[in-house]
Amino acid sequence: MNTRICSTVGVIALAALLPACAAKIHGTVQLDAGRQPAAKEGLGGTVVNMINTTVPLEQASHSVTTDADGKFESTKGRLRPGTYRVEVTRIGYETDTQTVEIKDYTRKKIEFNLRRIQEGSRKTIRGSKSDEDKIINPGEVNIQAPTL
User: Fold this and answer.
1) Low-confidence ranges of the chain (pLDDT < 50)
2) Which domains occur in the chain, in start order?
3) Are strands 107-114 and 47-52 parallel, antiparallel or unpaired?
């Protein structure tokens, strides 16, 4: 009888612990290989897309944003087993992508270092100095019907 009670308690404890061991992708995002962001921009709000490439489209995508420290974590219970393409995007920075394999209870930690997009040299495009070349005078256009 004692054995039966112990095994029942063990099964209940295991059932209670398994949801806490759900599959998870987590990690951190840094800007410019560890350099601190400018005073006006923080690490929070960077978008992390987790795209399962092995399931139907309606179940494939899950997105989260980073906190103020650049940390992110998938929402509990949202990940299904499969191969995930994890993309990190932020305005003004190059998108970084990594691929991970997730099983039922896998926990993967990923680190991202986003590089700032270099501003190109600015060029001035000059238009015409007047509108004369933009206006078509209908009297100057010679439209003829095609000959047969």
Assistant:
1) 10-11, 13-19, 33-34
2) 21-114 (2.60.40.1120)
3) unpaired
